[in-house]
Fold this protein.
Amino acid sequence: MSEKRLKIAVQKSGRLSDATLDVLKRCGLRINQSKNKLITHVKNMSIDILFVRDDDIPGLVMEGVVDLGFVGDNIMQEVSLQRAKFGEQAEFRQLISLDYGNCRLSIATTEEDVFTSIKDLEGTRIATSYPYSLGRYLDEQGVSAKIVHLTGSVEVAPRAGLADAICDLVSTGVTLEANGLREDEVILRSSATLVQRPIIEDETRQELIDRLIVRINGVMQAKESKYIMLHAPADKVDAIIDLLPGSETPTVLPLAGSEQQVAIHAVSKETVFWETMESLKQLGGSSILVLPIEKMLA
Ligand code: PRP
Ligand code: ZN
C-alpha cells in the first residue's frame, strides 16, 4: 500500500521549509504537520511527505528513496560534484525552478582584510560546508587554497583562527555582518528547485507527479485572490455559484447566440482554487479562466 504512495522530501527546518509547505498546501495537499515526525501522510492525496535535513535530499532523490524533493540548487550541485568525484551516479531531473529560497554561495573575509580579487586567496585557508563547489571554483580561477571542511558555524572560523576566509551561503547578509565579515565574491546563485528521481516506473505515480507539477506552476503564478470567468449551462448557475465560496455576488452575463449558456464572473479565494476548478468542470463549466487581480477596492 504505502509503497504506491508518492514520496516527497522537504527540508525539516530551515530556509525552504515554510515556503515549501506553503506551496504544497496551496496545491491542495492537506498536511498535518507535527514538529518531530519524519513522515506525514497527506490526508486527501496518495502522498507522503518526509521531513529531512536539506543536505540529505539530493541523495534520497538520486537513490530513488523518494520520488520528489524540494531543495536548493546549491545543495543539488554540491552533492552532484561530490558524487562525480567518487564515481557515483548523480542522476535526477529538475522539474521546476521555484521563486523562493534565493541565496548565494559567496566568499567572505573579515572587514579588516583587503580583498581585491580571488587571487588574494592564494595559499590561504578557506572554511566552508561546500568543499566541492568551492574546489571547482578555485580550480576554474587557478587559485590554490586549503579548503577547511566544516559542517556548521562556518562564519566563526576566521575569528576562531581556523581559516583566513569563508565560503558560505548568504541570504540577507545578517550572519556575515554579525560576524564582522564582508561578502567579497559570489561563486553561485541559488534558489529552491523541485527535483525528481531519474525514473518513475509506476504510471499512477507519474500521473500524480504531472498533476502536482501543473498545480505548482499554477501556485507560482498566483497571488492571493483570483478573478474567475467561465461559461456554464444556464440551469447550473446556482450550483456553480455555490461552488465559489468567498465570492460576493458573482456576475451572470448572457452569451451572444446561446440560450443554454451564460458567462459567470466571480472573485474567489485561492485556497479553494484547484478543487473548485475541477468541480466547476464537472458541472459543465467550460472556458474556465482564473486571472490574477492587480488591485482591489471594496
Ligand atoms: C546559511 C548560512 C548562514 C545563513 C546566512 O545557513 O550558513 O548561517 O544561512 O543567511 P543570512 O545571510 O540571511 O544571515 P542555512 O540556513 O543554509 O542553514 P544550514 O546550513 O543548516 O542548512
Ligand atoms: Zn543545510
User: Anything to note?
Assistant: Residues 249 and 266 are 8 Å apart (CA to CA). The pocket of zinc ion (ligand 2) is lined by residues 54-55 (CB under 6 Å). Helices lie at 17-26, 57-62, 73-85, 131-141, 174-178, 203-221, 237-242, 273-282. The first strand starts at residue 6 and ends at 11.
